[in-house]
Write the structure tokens for this entry.
Amino acid sequence: MKDVMGIINLGESEENIKALTYHRPIASIPYIGRYRIIDFIISNMVNAGIENIGIFTGSKFGSLVDHLGSGKAWDLDRKIDRLYVLSPEFQSLKPFYQEGDIRNFKDHLSYIKKSRQEYVMLSKSYMVFNMDFKDAVEFHKDSGADITILYKRVTEKKDFFINCDTLNLDENKRVLSIGTNTGSGPCPNISMEVYIMKKEMLVNMIEDAISFGDANYLKEMILKKIYDGNTYVNAYKYKGYLACINSLMNYYVESMEILNQENYQELFTGHGLIFTKVKDEAPTKYSDSCSVKNSLLANGCIIEGHVENSVIFRGVKIKKGAVVKNSIIMQRSVIEEGALIENVILDKSVTITANKHLMGDEKSPMVVRKDSVI
Amino acid sequence: MIKKKKEVIAMILAGGQGSRLGALTKTNAKPAVPFGGKYRIIDFTLSNCSNSGIYTVGVLTQYQPLTLNAHIGIGSYWDLDRKDSGVTVLPPYVGRDGGRWYKGTANAIYENTDFIDVYDPEYVIILSGDHIYKMDYSKMLKYHKEKGADATISVMEVPWDETSRFGIMNCNDDNSIYEFEEKPEKAKSNLASMGIYIFNWQKLKKYMAEDEQNIESDNDFGKNIIPTMLADGNKMYAYRFKGYWKDVGTIKSLWEANMDLLKDDNELNLYDRNWRIYSVNPVSPPHYVSPDSCVKSSLLDEGCIIYGNVENSVLFPDVYVAKGARIVDSVIMSNVRIEEGAVIERAIVGEDLIIKAGQKIGSIESEDITLFTE
């Protein structure tokens, strides 16, 4: 896979997940106790042997840069093929999921051109899965297709892929068109927005989009290719665990779904390991007064209270007599004595003071912003 | 070689076997014995160096160095991968006049005179790689300089009935040492040497060279160098340390040190963000605790999956505890699978084992700690 470069394009719609993206892109939302959303796609690429990975950020890239660092956690702190975090050259008031991503590709065209790889794998970050990209790339090369798009045929949980791209395929898995999932149709082929193509093809599409000025999104260019009849666009089917984090509800429900051991095993041991930034936390300490049921806990926590059906991030303290149910508690938050929280998402470093009660709804979890003291 | 002037460098003695640790040190030097749910014993000394701002560290290895070498690597986990300092592993070597093993603690340092001279330090701090404690060596160095000492020895108060196990420092009121007694039957003081020494390098070099000429000598700091320096009237001071310090020589004391971490008033705070203990971090997801399990008074590291009961125990990463299994007062090292109904009490279980369904290891009645490694 030394001949494939990866590009993770973070032009992702935040419309339905704003409560968690005030100060960060979707890519760096904390997820499942110790990860950020982007860890999954980067790990998949690294596990397949992709060594040159470019991340095209939008404007809120502070937390992302902090998380990624030099790429060491993914073994991407190398000399030539390494992690490149590329932010827009000119700040725009609009996020680039509203203004189009061609602009961003244009800014970084020289990076794409000078990369030594023949192929490129394009992706976003909001799709969470653990798969073997080597097979997909082999499939692409053998099929003779110009572009291969990865998809999953979703039979259950259709409602959790609303607004995702869908692929309309003919019997030979040739892509006829790309639509949008409204949740109404039967078993949609959900596009994972992972595209494999020759680098030359990508460069041509970008240059065409710029010189003709008739497309703002790369997806428009790919659609044109599908319709022009001269380009062979096919699809590669993925059958494993897939979560789509494009709304707050999805974030909450999919986090809870990982409490199911089948999903946990598939996401973390399905194909390769999922890497993330190391925090050097001590093991989590359970006191003799605690009770913990059906929950995931990362390192560095001190648990003295009751925790049930919840996901607890690194370095959280849950004091004596506190009760946490159906909730997601992000890193370094503190739940003081006697507090009760249910159906709540606490962002990083939140303190819930003693005896406070916070209740969200199962269908609409309450979100508490980073650094709040309640 | 280009000289890289440093004020102080640290030399960690890590060649010891720790024969009383039985099977745990069969293929493993004592400093590499796992401890505390994720660490190896040498992590404490290496982290102390890094946290004290001492970035030039030599690690002297001899006995079974494979695990230790692999663990230390280039020192990046302790932030010791540096341009003109960092960690260097120093095994015995062959020279023009033949090769030899390190004969004693002082000889090990003497044999690496060239290494130390590259840094041309004012001071050398001699440390042991098999003690568990947190200490700011920069404070000890400051004390050494203030006293204008030739050597400073870190000491701590031990119970009077245990003085016969230690090297005892007899001091004047200003903490200057007038006498050193190795394991005295009737001690005059309860200040025990912790095996932590700061020497003025040029002075130490001279004494080591003289000691090498004495064929009767054991070439040991405690037995030879320090008594000789004292006899010559050098200025030697005791530096009083207060806090947790443990030399885990036996299975029982290793077990006790692990159990110390579970106490509420434990002095060895592993959760202090200003003095982290660094280690090689495994790549594992948050641990999972099922609805009908029970975990109390324990430390759990990432990757554990718990369906059974865990009480008063320390679990390293990736331990699986099946339904109906019970772990009490025990230490379970990484990647152990404990099957249904197995019972482990007052035991240390080594890495990568499968404990079969219904198997019983150790007993709550037993005075001794059971070591189970195959």
About this structure: Residues 8 and 46 of chain B are 15 Å apart (CA to CA). The mean pLDDT of chain B is 95. The longest strand of chain B covers residues 191-200. Helices of chain B lie at 42-51, 66-72, 105-110, 113-119, 137-147, 201-213, 221-231, 251-260.
